[in-house]
UniProtKB/TrEMBL annotation:
Keywords assigned: Hydrolase, Metal-binding, Zinc
Gene3D superfamilies linked: Cytidine Deaminase, domain 2
InterPro entries, per database record: APOBEC/CMP_deaminase_Zn-bd (IPR016192), CMP_dCMP_dom (IPR002125), Cyt/Deoxycyt_deaminase (IPR050202), Cytidine_deaminase-like (IPR016193)
Protein's UniProt name: Cytidine deaminase
Organism: Amphiprion percula (Orange clownfish)
Cofactor: Zn(2+)
One Gene Ontology term, aspect cellular component: cytosol
CMP/dCMP-type deaminase domain span: 1-103
GO terms classed as biological process: nucleobase-containing small molecule metabolic process; pyrimidine-containing compound metabolic process
Keyword Calcium attached: no
Amino acid sequence: MAHESHKAKEFSYCPYSMSCYVENTCFSLGLCAERTAINKAMSEGYQKFKAIFDLEDRVIAPCGACRQVMREFGDMPVFMTKVDGSYTTMTLEELLPLAWGTEYLKK
């Protein structure tokens, strides 16, 4: 999966950073790599995810917005991977404790 994450960076639009981010000069309108991957997968019919891989030069955790979006799909492991192959793994519960979820919505 780390290899596939690295390949995905080739198709990103990111003139301001080095990830598979979809950037915009108005930073709040951009989409991080994690949300871009989830949105693309959802648009292709996928609804369940086993894990999320982040690939950077250093270990970087997903932003809060990405953590919340990932939360919709369960407490999957998040692999924060460096290009040298080393990584740190945490669950979404560890990264976003007491997160808001669908269980709080009235049916």
